[in-house]
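Human: I wish I could look at a protein chain and see how it folds. This is the protein in question:
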Amino acid sequence: MKKVRGREREVCKATEEGAAAYYDKIPEIVEGLVASCRNEDCFDHIGFEPISSRESVIAIIEQTRSLLFPGYFTASRIPSPSLAFAIGQDVTRLFDILSKQITLATRHDCLRNDRLCSQCVIRGREMAIMFLSSLPGIRSILATDVTAAYESDPAAKSFDEIIFSYPGLYAVTIYRMANQLYRQGIPLLPRIMTEHAHSITGIDIHPGATIGDHFFIDHGTGVVIGETTEIGNGVRIYQGVTLGALSLPKEAVEKLRNAKRHPTIEDGVIIYSGATILGGETVIGARSVIGGNVWITESAPPDTEIFLQKPDLVVKSKNF
């Protein structure tokens, strides 16, 4: 090992001693941050008012997914004779964490909006049981989504591959559990769930959207499905599809906040990559095919094909 010479040792010592000057600046920075918390134009959540935990909501997602697909997302194999015991433990753990997070979200919503007491602890337990009771139905509809993926994608080699690795199914799985909570009137948690899926997959599905069975998102990156979108059964969409709302002037936002702003896609429609379909009055009729990169703000009757006219390609040799 190379020895440190005297001059180098003095430089190192001076460098370390000089670090104190930087640490001396930290109290001033802390003071500035604390002062900014007193500014009404900034956002913080300081004090005793409760709020949900994003980390706990993500834990709810993973625990629920392990119940929706038993044996796929567990550290150890579940023998068939032990199924009831394993599920019983998982359901109990999920009830505890879910009821607490529903209680926190409900209490926060009441305090924030100055509402009458909603008996949030009781409501949290009741809503958690309601959600858990819905899981067999969610499992059934997810089975149709897995089947749709297998039947629509020749690259899929097995149902297991789809369940383990398809981002579209991951996003749809989280959407279906979030949609259940959304329909139960639970604040905050559904949006945290779907935005977590969005951050992982690039697929943005609002929990308020209505989506039928046998739904398949192929590839998926860049897909956007707005809050009031209605999608029928057997619909297939590709990456980059937007089912969105028309842009609104600022003064119209509040008026239309609870109105239908996003399109309706009827049964059996196929929407290819890059298509944009906008507006609450826009209806794409059953069994229609929407080509890539089209922009649609008007309705189309059933059994319609909508494509862009093929552009003229210029092909020439590099040797000129």
Summary: The longest helix spans residues 120-152. The longest strand covers residues 216-218. Helices lie at 6-23, 26-36, 54-68, 83-112, 120-152, 159-165, 167-183, 189-201. The radius of gyration is 26 Å.
